[in-house]
């Protein structure tokens, strides 16, 4: 029975690692340097990029742009829709802006450069609620995700853990069978 409880706790630990812990990533907005600009077409827009990406609580968005010419404004939904740059929630113009996605839900960003937002330089990022991670739906990692040293490593650890999940759950089921 001791063996069984050990297996059970190992399985719980495994589930915790799979679902509770998931590596935070840094996502380069637009997938490349200097993507923070007026899009040349609808297909080139940052929202097209955002729709293909996956954002989790704890991830960071990173913008690389010329801080002398442009800025990143985090705004509310209304100011996003109206391209109103007068009262942003946050304003960044350092050319290397990093914003932590610290809650689920939508984040709205517009360019602070005059007339740019109206021409489509804007971005909505919708961060998944932690619950959504439990569905097990896991799209292929986006190429836009920055493969940065230590941040990238835990991803492969997760796939290693995933391969161990089925046998572990099997053992757990056997243990539960014994207990009943
Ligand atoms: C922009 O927002 C400010 C403050 O929220 C508001 O006073 C102003 O009327 C808005 N401007 C436009 C053009 O919507």
Automatic annotation (TrEMBL):
Q: How does it sit in the membrane?
A: Lipid-anchor; GPI-anchor
Molecular function (GO) terms for this protein are:
electron transfer activity
Q: Where is the Phytocyanin domain?
A: 25-129
Which superkingdom is the protein from? Eukaryota
Report keywords, A-Z: Cell membrane, Disulfide bond, Glycoprotein, GPI-anchor, Lipoprotein, Membrane, Signal
The residues forming the signal peptide are 1-24
Chief subcellular location: membrane
Which CDD domains does this one have? OsENODL1_like
Q: Name one Pfam family in it.
A: Cu_bind_like
Where does it live in the cell? Cell membrane
Annotated Gene Ontology cellular components are: plasma membrane; side of membrane
Read off the InterPro entries from this record. Answer: Cupredoxin (IPR008972), ENL_dom (IPR041846), Phytocyanin-like (IPR039391), Phytocyanin_dom (IPR003245)
Instruction: Please state which protein family the record places this protein in.
Output: Belongs to the early nodulin-like (ENODL) family.
Q: Mind telling me what this protein is named?
A: Early nodulin-like protein 1
Q: Which organism's genome codes for this protein?
A: Cicer arietinum (Chickpea)
Gene for this chain: LOC101514694
